[in-house]
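Input chain follows. Return structure tokens only.
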Amino acid sequence: MNIHEYQAKQLLAQCGVAVPAGAPCKTVDEAKSAAEKLFAAGHKLAVIKSQIHAGGRGKGTFKHGFQGGVKLAKSVDDAVNYADNMLGKTLVTKQTGPDGRVVSTIIVAAAEDIKKEFYLAVLLDRTASKPLIMASTEGGMDIEEVAEKHPEKIIKEHVDPLMGFQAWQGRKIAAALGLKGDLAGQCAKLLAGVYKTWWECDASMVEINPLCICVGPDGKEKMIAVDAKIGLDDNALYRHKDIQEMRDLAEESPLEIEASKFNLNYIKLDGSIACLVNGAGLAMATMDIVQHYGASPANFLDVGGGASKDQVTAAFKIILSDPGVKAIFVNIFGGIMDCNVIATGIVAAVKETGLTLPLVVRLEGNNVEAGKKTLVESGLTIISGDSMADAAQKVVKAVQ
């Protein structure tokens, strides 16, 4: 699950990480009040940031013509004007697609006087089976670009999950970033807070880009998380009722929301062939082979290793809710899964939905003969695939 920037900063602040002064606002009046407090506190600039689950906000364009989802305000009047042009309006960026996203919340925060930018992230290194802290002096840039052009500028530090983050590791990373004195101490403390956020929230990733040395109204230099992004492990959300409440359904596809109710992993795509598969790896291979034979997948849909008849029926209904779907490709390898359970679910789903689109099914593995028999005896028009390649060619041909 993804959350908004302002929510990520709230979680970080709870763990002692310094973030810019400010507040999330859902109305122009709230934005005005927040801006007044910032300017009264001595800040010379305020930043107004649209809150959507997409990058490129600063370079985005609103559908009514207003340019930029991130703006610097020199006065309360500026902040009010920007808030009025953002709230309730649709922002289109390179990541939203042409439909854009409606901005229902903005951040009104202090625009810090930035002296130096860094990159910081905590994630899981699956190869080492350990938490990994990544830092770089190249803040504000795409970390993939830094890794490609300047790999030597990326600092990596593994954390023993049993020992937890150690103070000496904070000092080591601060020194590697070239920080000394009070700033080094601030950095070590901030690193501990970021790691604590990652650990206690069951996050998949915590990314701060940029992490900055800023000069406050009092003239003192401070380490502040100017921007923040947190991705959370869906499998651990049951432990975090407060974080579950941060979920913004308006930022998710209605079909993806419906799929989550049945514990189905569904992502809508732009193609015409719907794929219903068990297992993420097989699902990706299925999408690849559909593409290989000249068509495009309409979705990623993983029903998991132990799908029930009800889940299969729900999956069919979700697939058929997409008007772009012209055919359905069911590709099942029965390891844990019983092929006959899937076959029974397919038959029930076809009858319940009144399916008229071409349906190609490839079953293999556990109890496959019983599954194939169930499909044949159903009397339904179902195209059988002898192999993954055979089934993919047949479904592509059916669409063409």
